[in-house]
Amino acid sequence: MPQVIEQFTKLPTALGCSPKLRLSVSNRVRGAPIVNGHVVQLSAKIRMFVEESVALCKPDRIHIVDGGEEESTILLDTLQRLGTIQSLPKYDNCWLARTNPADVARVESKTFICTERREQAIPTPKEGVQGTLGNWISPDDYDTAIRSRFPGCMQGRTMYVVPFSMGPIDSPLSKFGIEITDSAYVVCSMRIMTRMGLQVLEKLSDNSDFIKCLHSVGTPLSGKLTMPSWPCDPERTIILHKPAKNEIVSYGSGYGGNSLLGKKCFALRIGSTIAQREGWLAEHMLILGVTDPNGVKKYIAAAFPSACGKTNLAMMNPTLPGYTMECVGDDIAWMKFDSKGQLRAINPENGFFGVAPGTSMETNPNAMQTVYKNTIFTNVATTSDGGVFWEGMEKEIAIDVEITDWLGQPWKMGESKTPAAHPNSRFCAPAGQCPIIDPAWEGKEGVPISAILFGGRRPEGVPLVYEANSWSHGVFVGSAMRSETTAAAEHKGKVIMHDPFAMRPFFGYNFGDYIKHWLSMEQRAAKVGGHMPKIFHINWFRKDAKGKFLWPGFGDNSRVIDWVLRRVDECDCYKDTPIGRIPAPGAINLEGLSSPVNEKELFHIPKDFWMKEVEDIKQYYDNQLPHDLPAEIAQQLVDLKRRLERM
Ligand code: OXD
Ligand code: MN
Asked: How far apart are CA 86 and CA 379, in angstroms?
């Protein structure tokens, strides 16, 4: 529904500078009045960024985001009046946003990395083959893309200046950013997903560098008196990254991954390029703390492609008696060696931007308990008692409630043919509300990582778990990862896609160089007297001949984690196979499982399947990385084939 023009927000000017100084300096940038905050709060570098952005985007007014409660209330109120969000009275401070149906997911085809030379950003595929490891844009085209979209794009609207930190503000592993955006939805979501506001401005007051993030939904008002409730410009959406300048520019989409620029754009794409330069890892990984029955605590990091149950694993309630699991993060890990050579991880985020469908009291009670306060839902269905609904919650709503689908249409369980919630609908909730949040989740030094897990949805052939024989074998396993596709991006249908390191949509630089960087970590660790964690591959999704899952999953995945951690302690509970080490018969603790599992089938390694897998991986490397594959990884594939032939 079209609504009234965006509000001129009247907020108390935030403190942080002397009142005298504030009075003596005009509170405008290039003529645009600052309606919240004061120009003297901006460091010279931030001010220059704001000036350039104002000159380009021509907003009517500027709002320097302070991150406070009062500001949040006013912004939510503004969004409500615009019709962008509606309140969910069943819960405490929860909101639902319904997007334009053309703006519902990350758009990988419109996401680019800008470097001088193409091969710095993406591998050169074999001639005639379409590259699938990211998109490159030249500096000239980058400038043209901006010039043809941004001039005047914020006319009639408010430009928000969002200072944010990826990682706990005082951690040496954290990095700061400034997101300039014309979306109040983005500001409210960034408040949940990052540490946002005046503390960050204070940190940057020494004029230190930050990641520049410029975002516009691309809907200037220019004379119009109304604005759509979900402003966007899907036809011209583009998401640009320039690692050499630590710069992100996003236009046309208000949806999460495209507009909350701290997440995929900064923490992964730009983050991975910084990590390569500085010798650490920025990864698409959850971080989980595991305490065993003896009270010994270890942390694992795990990479899964989007919507493969990462959030469920990150918040698992273990079924194995005596175990406790605690969540540090569900999506991204930044990992660096400490002075003793121990790899330590922080979760750079402050919230969860989780896929809603499939999340329920059965599959992830901790997530469900996290989302019923201070949460912004996007594209889920609503219930007539003021709550939310999505596929998977069928047993959790009263029978007599009426459901309205994500498009605002009446929806009937068992009758309607379309999903009630969009398959990529989300909850955006503060991580600190998770009942099993790890006590060390905001620790400055990060948590020590003992094991790295790779995984994916593999209905056939891939065992429940196997361990890599060495660091370089593990890196090979990560590079060869494949999974059934999901709804998190624009792909259609279920196909098994290569998603190396679960990073395919998120590499900030050439994947061949990324593999080399991973390989180099072993030597870096050795130099400071440390060693790399063991690497494992897991697959909760193997099916039997009738298409039934062979493994119960969820809390019972703790049984696999138990084996993984015993292997970290070098327990002799494994069996060598051509693909790696699998649990010795009986080594996985299956006691107390609600129904028996077919261990033999779960760990069966069919030679034909794996010979075909080797061929597929070879073809993938030949097609996608004909010039960029490190020799060590090519050798790993040759060795795997040789081991399989001897089977
Ligand atoms: C996500 C994704 O949103 O991986 O986390 O797509
Ligand atoms: Mn993700």
From this structure: 11
The rounded distance, in Å, linking the Cα atoms of 275 and 52 is 28
Alpha-carbon Rg for the chain in angstroms: 25
pTM recorded for the entire structure: 0.95
Provide the pairing of β-strand 574-577 with 534-538: unpaired
Q: Distance between CA atoms of 551 and 598, rounded to whole angstroms? A: 8
13, burial (CB in 10 Å: exposed 0-12, middle 13-18, buried 19+)? middle
CA distance 39 to 29: 7
Q: How far is the CA of 602 from the centre of ligand 2 (A)?
A: 27
Pocket residues for ligand 1 (CB within 6 Å)? Answer: 106, 257, 306, 331, 353, 488
> Of 104, 106, 497, 503, which is best to mutate to test ligand 1, by the most ligand atoms within 8 angstroms of its C-beta?
106
**Secondary structure of 146-175 in HEC code, one letter for each residue:** HHCCCCCCCCCCEEEEEEEEECCCCCCCCE
Ligand 1, residue 256: give the atom nearest the CA.
3
The pLDDT tens digits of the residues spanning 302-346 come to: 999 876 889 999 999 999 999 999 999 999 999 999 999 999 999
The answer for 279, left when phi > 0, alpha when psi is -120 to 50, beta otherwise, is: left
- Quote the ligand 1 centre to 338 CA distance (angstroms): 28
> Active-site residue numbers?
308
Contact criterion met (CB below 8 Å) for 125 and 626:
yes
Ligand 2 centroid distance, CA of 310 (Å)? 8
pLDDT digits (tens, 9 = 90+) for 423-438: 999 999 999 999 999 9
